[in-house]
Design brief:
single chain; 10-stranded mixed sheet; alpha+beta; 10 helices; 28% helix; 12 strands
Length: 482
Amino acid sequence: MPLLASLANLPGSREFHLHVLVSSPRKHSNLYPFASQPRPRTYLQDILILLSEQASPDARRLFVSAIEASVYHIPSTSSAIVYVSKVDSTGQATAPSPTSTLVRAFLSYYANPSTRPLSVDHLWVHLFARAQNQLCAWWKRQFTSVAEELLNAETLSTRLYYMLPGLGELEASHLLGHTSCTSASSVTWVYGHPYSQIDVPLPGVTAPHIGQIIPWFDDDPKARFIDEIAYTTEADGVKSPERKRPRIASGLRVVEEEAQDKVVDKKDAHSQKEEQATKALRKVSVSEFWERMSFRQECIAGAITGFFVMAVSSGSPQAMARSEATPLAPQPGQVAPQLIKRVLTSLMTGHEFPTAERAAWSTKVLEESIRGLCDGLRTVSVANVGVHVAGSDRSTPEPSLTCATPQTPPPRLVRLKHSVADASPNPFPEPVTSLETYNAFVYGSLAVNNPGLPRKTPAESGDDGKPKVTVLTVRRKKRVKP
């Protein structure tokens, strides 16, 4: 596993256990829900990466890092989009934390054409950095490191964009510049959006309104804002119902005409909604869209948030050896999308990692559940397993892994424009995993035995060996004598 190999040089002695779940491709029609028909055919894959750590062979495993992402493949434009929806850590890792190294390895794996599992000419990475342990400065450092690795490739063109809603370029540069990259870095960042540039072709179709060039992701503030612009066409967002047509006759003829009118009215209403949505989106330019994003509640909640985009384009078309088969054909090691949803739902709703005891129990249950699901078990019962509380004979039962349903709701209001592109069934059945699949593709372990972090110098510590603390004093204003 390339991700596992990237952890080999981390300081200290410990053993890493990595689980990588990648779903089989499936058709997806909501990446550009407001694009004109026919929409570009898109294929979606879910990715869930879980990393646990073991301080010694006799110690318990503790989950330390997790990555959730989605990969969108658009063959018509030879493009792919990697949307990183969440990166989190439990705080149970040994210093230094492997989260940064794991994230950089994941981004490099898809950004580098030599390791990328998709044969595309253009790759885009999108991220919305929230105020939940996803600091903008931290993310900018990760993207900078990945871009620096790609500078040696002469055939690659890399572009980096970022925007902090509500802040100007000078403010954002001052806020992140001194903490995001070193002065020797040759990576150039552009403060703004990538939807007006022409160096790297956009994944969607070239169109005059924002609904056809800005991708739509689940749980993304851009998508929610596009929905509001498209469907809130009146001043108060409410429109009066249309007047009904009067009856012109009686009997069977009236019934037939009413049935025909209902079909026509439904088609007309659907066409009108599409036309209204298109008109509303055409009125908002890309620059105006991003300016208005600065006033959204998600971007002005008191913490700094940011949008980051990395575009990697190949100078020459990539070989199509890996994409000769249909994009829907499952590849070795891929799992069913429902399996990832089960694990992710259990992780988000049934487990916590506040202490080492809780983290050890949750790690054991989740790792055994993943192994059991890959081995063909339909249910994994964990109801009889409890967490022992120190100093008490009581134990807290935990919910079953498979009781919860997937948490992600369907896209809001996009169903009003639901495309028929996905009507055709997938000709390939969902992949059937086995214990061999688990051992060969899903799970891997790596033991490292490297020197630890260097100790702090006397200048960084006090005379007693404790960290030096700088005490700030209040500067009093001198009074002017009369």
